[in-house]
## 1
Amino acid sequence: MSPRWLKLKAACEYASLGQHRLKELAFRGVIRGYPDPDSGRGDWIFDRLSLDAYRESPLKGQVSPKQKAMMIMEGMR
């Protein structure tokens, strides 16, 4: 069983992307990722399912308005 949330290094390996690219995608709302609220060092975590969706998307990096709204709403919880 794979964990849902991946630390930065594991997310880079999983998605075959660099650290800066992952953070950029997270800032743009393309994938879900942010500094881990439980880490005192500001370590980043990324949602494995959003990485899967990004990699499976035929228009890499394109997020539908509905997907973006859902990501925003989930972040407010």
## 2
Amino acid sequence: MNIEDVVLNPASERPKQLLKAIFERQTELLHKYHPIEAKNGLLQTDAHPLDLHCRFSQARIKDMAYRAVEELVESVDAGDHIEHRQEELVDALHFIVELAICVDFTPRTLDEYYAAESDCNHVYGIIHHLGMMTHKCRNKPWKQTHQLTDIPRFYACLDQAFIAFFGLMKHEGLSPGGVYDLYFRKAAVNSFRQISKY
């Protein structure tokens, strides 16, 4: 099953709060994926929400941020293949949203993100903000002294990553409804993969 195989309801049936619906769907997906990661021995912690001061939670945050970065880089690698590039971008959105859910981040609305000032027209703007966010997680595996996370700055960087992400999606020519549709088409593919043990 691929994204092209998924047919959505008409645009008139979209919910009013698009990003809230995306967060709710991603919450369903993460509750299915986390047990798989735990079974594979790769779930650093099952804390929810993640404790931003805890080194295991910070390792989880960095892992999830890198998953988004990998998808962002794959979108660059897709070059002029617009559909493939946008699919990789929406894969990154899955991981950024999941990260936000796990750290108990309350996002703005999709319309607010689209209206926010952003000069982002490349994935590296998003990567920069994700990197600055993870930089606030100071408890590296080799550190022997515990450091507290600057939580307001952490959330501000994550918010900037969302602004940059949706700025790029707007640059890609995708409306908020277009992002919603693309997300839900890929979410349907991910659900199928879970069922088929992909």
## 3
Amino acid sequence: MEDPPVAVTLRFMREVNTMAVLARLRENESLIVSEIARATGLSRQAVTRVLDELQSQGLVEYLAPVRPSRGSGRPAQAVRLRAEAGYVVGGLIDPQGIHLAVADLRGTIRASSHVPLGAAPPDQHVLGLLVRETEAVLERANITVADVWSATIGAPGIVDRATGVIRTAPSMPMLTGDVLVETLSKHLACTVHLDNDLKLATRGELWRGSAARVRHLVLVHWGERVGAGIVIDGELHRGASNDAGDLGFLDILASGATTIPGYGRFESWVGVRALAQLVADELEAAGDPERAGVIHQEGEGALDAILTGIGQNETPYLHAVDRLARRFSHGIVALRTILDPELVILSGPLAQVGQPLLDALDRALAAQPLVPPALQISALGRDAVVHGALRHSLDLVEARGYTPIERRGSASSANLLASPVLADEREVPS
């Protein structure tokens, strides 16, 4: 267990108190000094010292005094965070497209971009398009690269966050290695951070999704591949190798399944191609071999047609969803048994099935002895990755004390966000 932080120096004490004041200002359009003092437990004098320092750094702005409606007391001094003092970039690059967003220091999105990728685009086309779209979204936000204090990009595959290297990305092999970070770093003045897309999506759901107050959560991406982002006691759980939640590689649950080369046994059993095979089987059984042949031939590419059939309540398609849900329920039971989450959020291509899928999963889980977690379809979808990337960038900016230039290896800033307010500053002379 790590030792809790202590105020060994006056400088560190003021850094912690500065973070507390900024946190309050970030949550409100403006506050008067006495409100900040009450909310943080600091003395008015301590708050004023912090605000004066932040004003000199261009991070806060004093507003016109608010005169009381009655009486003749001293006007209250209001202050606001200058959220426009700096910006962060968050993004996602995956086989479907490039998503980017720019947010200010309060997390308000100022501009965004989404560009689809064509089938099997050339390597340089993808990286070049990423750079061009980054430049375009900054232009739409009316800012320059000097205004960007941090950037985070999510990508599929196994990501080494410390080195910015994608160790493997079967769906986008052109991103393997450090090419993504190296390419974007040449066009931004700040450090570019890289993380797995599902990990960032989980962070985005906690910040901007329906899971904002959930302490124990699993976000499942369910498509051709299956993976999970895990939250334990409000914190994202990464595991020793940053790939905790790789649900697709469970094999004791699908021992009889045929494994697709390069895929895990469980995701081979429950992925998009598995659903296509089940639909084809059901259409064959219903005496419709022609449509069954089309579905079987298209495989993963048949998802749109399958979604249409489900939306029209066609029996063969609904039966296939039931069969797939019974398979997938074994994965949810494993998550329930080991993690006991309050909520499981479904995202990814198969989450587009919507309520029929939730109903089928509820039926499949009804006979389980343990009470299953609540199930929801993600309202954010892949946008959750971008929100999570923005939140990660903001966390980094906050942790280093809202300084524009990222300082590597800062020993004290890493724990600032979790540190308590040191209210005894009221006893320390300036």
## 4
Amino acid sequence: MDGKSSFPAALKRYRDSPMQFLPYAETTSVPNVIVDGARNAGTVLTLSHWPKSGTPAALKADTSTEIVFNYLDRPRLRVNADVVSNNHFDEDGLVGIFALLQPAVAARHRELLVDVAQAGDFGIFRTRQAARIAFTLSAYSDASTSPLPRALFELPYPKLTAELYIRLLEVLPALATRLDDYRSLWEGEDAKLTTTEELIEQGQIAIDEQPDLDLAIVRMPSALSYHPFALHTRTHCSRLLVVQGTRVELQYRYEGWVQMASKRPLPRVDLEGLATELNLEETGGGRWVFDGVDQITPRLFWQGTSASSFPPEAIVTRVEHHLRTGPPAWDPYDPASEFAI
């Protein structure tokens, strides 16, 4: 990388588009649309499933990409802004921004692009092509696997975010039509996904759902390595309790942090109190940690070099009790009376 900004070239590339991409920091003084992130001082419309996003009720959907397509479907709702941006990089944000910049191209691949957004955000997919595109985009944005210049990943995060958008907006169309050209970036994750799917079919990984708790208990031998896409696609539960040998981990899925339109996961319960209770009784060489109910995908997990002194099923029982009795502690939804059209 020569240190020069690639932003002007990116704007020229989309000169025939009804909108243009600008880095988030450069949009605060101009009317802008934010896709998949948080609004700023210049934002006139947010197209995002983020918590309390203020996205109009008529446009709501599970992914920000679907929200963008809903917006494009309703010309009467268009706003007076020709700049689009986002404050973070991920697959849903990329695909949604691409749809605004290149609506005609995006319309031809609509189902696939929505599938890619779901794979990137939620780890669920309808087609293997979408999962592989999500794996490729993830590889591009990871310094350890990216074919992009290493110097890019030494930039401050806001600048890195802008550069990733500019570069991958160019790559995305090729992924939809020539995915095999990028095999080296997706085949490792794809193989792990296949192996996990086979282990589920063979019964070595068992998934037991408790719909009243929005909980799936996943049991597997300790030696197994699994791909989360396989688990997430097999169960709609937003809470996963993974029992792997002697280790137990509760995972809140991303669906519980954002605003979902097709369903509403049970509200998250703050498990900090449970972690404290366990640590008061724990005699193993470690401690129980809860990341925090407001984190995007928080976990309750054992942190230690030796095993917990609790039998795994005792932890399962404790977690079930707290999920059943604990008060709601996270609400991402806008007030029903606001942001209607």
